[in-house]
């Protein structure tokens, strides 16, 4: 685990603050919390998948080379390597076109990652990513899309607040572990409070 951490740390710290190594550390922490309630899960695979799940993130690269290279160096059997690839493939939201999380390990990693996309940290990450991409804070004329292809989701540069309605506010109901569902509830409510306060301030009512 320590060797993998060192291998991926420099990769993530080349990304913007929304997907740097601190993001990975928080997802690991979320995963550990969920793992404590899921005794049948393979904890090693969960931790390795968390560490590797964004090294070839489509927001930053078109290639899976880094992910495959790192997985191939792991001292585990081929079946576990393939399992890690399947876990990683099922994590992304993809504009609502996500792949199914078929195993408990995949469910834990998906929930752990999505928990870091909501709540106070999720808000901070959204505006960090938007700032890095030169996006507007909000756009009152922009309508949130309710259906889109993965390509449409990734290529249209929407305002940061629009992203809440296209993804973040949907995640609470997409959690698949019981602990993940519990943890998501408070974070979801915090986002609703933030959006209400933001609207009030923009309209001069706060």
From TrEMBL:
CDD domains membership: HDc
Record-linked InterPro entries: HD/PDEase_dom, HD_domain
Annotated HD/PDEase domain residues: 16-127
Database matches in PANTHER family: HD_PDEASE DOMAIN-CONTAINING PROTEIN, SUPERFAMILY HYDROLASE, PUTATIVE (AFU_ORTHOLOGUE AFUA_1G03035)-RELATED
Protein's name according to its UniProt entry: HD domain-containing protein
Species, as recorded: Lysinibacillus composti
């Amino acid at each position: 685990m320590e060797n993998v951490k060192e291998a991926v740390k420099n990769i993530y710290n080349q990304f913007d603050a929304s997907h740097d190594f601190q993001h990975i550390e928080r997802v690991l922490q979320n995963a550990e919390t969920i793992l404590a309630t899921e005794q049948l899960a393979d904890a090693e695979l969960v931790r390795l998948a968390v560490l590797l799940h964004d090294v070839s993130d489509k927001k930053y690269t078109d290639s899976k080379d880094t992910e495959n290279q790192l997985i191939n160096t792991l001292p585990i059997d081929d079946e576990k390597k393939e399992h890690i690839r399947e876990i990683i493939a099922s994590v992304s939201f993809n504009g609502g076109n996500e792949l199914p999380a078929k195993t408990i390990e995949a469910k834990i990693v998906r929930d752990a990652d999505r928990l870091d996309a909501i709540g106070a940290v999720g808000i901070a990450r959204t505006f960090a990513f938007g700032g890095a991409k030169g996006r507007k804070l909000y756009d009152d004329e922009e309508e949130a899309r309710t259906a889109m292809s993965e390509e449409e989701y990734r290529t249209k540069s929407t305002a940061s607040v629009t992203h809440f309605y296209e993804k973040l506010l949907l995640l609470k109901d997409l959690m698949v572990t019981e602990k993940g569902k519990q943890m998501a509830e408070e974070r979801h409510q915090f986002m609703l409070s933030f959006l209400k306060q933001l609207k009030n301030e923009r309209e001069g009512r706060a």
